[in-house]
Amino acid sequence: MMQNLLPSEQSAFVSSKPAERRELCFALAAVLVSIAFFSLAAPFATLQLAQVPAFIPAYEAALVITDLITAVLLFGQFKIIRSRALFVLASGYLFTAAITFVHALTFPGLLAPTGLLGAGTQTTAWLFMFWHGGFPLFLIAYALLKDAGHGADATSKPIALQRGGSGTAVAAGVAVVVGLVGVLTLVATTQQNLLAVLVVNGRFTAANAVMVSILLILGLLALAVLWRRRPHTVLDLWLMVVACAWLLDIALSGILNATRFDLGWYGGRIYGLLASSFLLIVLLVENGAHYARLAKLSAELSAANSGLERLSFQDGLTDLANRRSFDRYLADQTAVAYRYQRPLALILCDVDAFKAYNDGYGHQAGDDCLQQVAAALRCCCRRPADMSARYGGEEFALILPDTDLAGAMRIAAAAIAAVSQLGVAHAHSPAAPHVSVSCGVAVLLPGNDMSAQQLVAAADQSLYQAKHRGRNQMVCMQAECENEHA
Asked: Which of 166, 163, 185, 186 is nearest to 174 (CA)?
């Protein structure tokens, strides 16, 4: 199955993000600094320096680790984007890591007097040629595989793979690279008699100069192809920086110097390490940016989810709990009341003659009225467990856990008084010259087998009586029944 990414998702990667002025300035600065150091070192390239035994293992270990991490990061992007060009580039960095490792094993005097793996006097020199000639070829292949017809938002046409096929492709790429390095190692170790002599007593021969010239041509060709294959992505830009450093490495350590362990030889190795590090640094910065974006998106998503959850349980006009939240909370509190044998009170409140208010003052004034009534009722719920909710339309509800009949009636009276004190004029009300509410009270008492629905029905019946008796008052049918039986 192919990975389908939106353009905005594709451009999140340096392998598909178009190069902009800022990236161009950074890349140009890196090239200019590299050229400046090269200009300073070039006149002294043949200056013989002390042999530092620890330099080669430290340098080549750093190269292997750097190139291996770069290859892993590029293969990771390939598994998302499925780009042929990216696959080839990742294989190229894996190639340099593998052949550098073999080069270190065969280097004379490092792990054995003549090197391991049956190395001869020309083995490391030829492995250097294979190494520095192979990587430009991978760069050229990468540039040629870029899909110029699709702009900078795609490095190449994606490879159509079945589910899990990207892992198989990576495994196959690793196997091919390891096999290629194995073949080149066999050629450099067992077939030395077929290869030209590049080093004699630590000094480079004319044949070495010819091979280095070929490497320079390959490097320049890679740079030219990368430059011509437009539009450039950020990855293309930094690969051109890598190619420039690669050319300076070859020039300093293969042309301007005279022997191993001179200034040009050391300087060229340093350029090689820089060339290896440039892209890794860019990829690590990109990963850090991805992590920062992911953390930001995660925080935004969490806030959005919290907002959606709040909206799903909150009335949009009054900010009180909505009907859904009311139903859930009443069911929970009914279960708690049954379990712990505690009273639970419910008050239903209805704005008197609200339709007449809407018709006389307009719907905007009606909304403002409901908001003021909601605020007044919310103030009547003083305990954390109390809930004020918009039951529907102009009807509100108060859920009062651990509240008996007397307490519920006091709160209902307070609610009526709070709304009256708002002083919202209502000339069309038959109950009062201002906006008022009628309240119906019901209480689930310990030992009373009443469900949440029955509690609502009892409160609704009391509310009906309050409206029937003239509005702007409260009624509790249970209290009246108790008084009748007293």
From this structure: 166
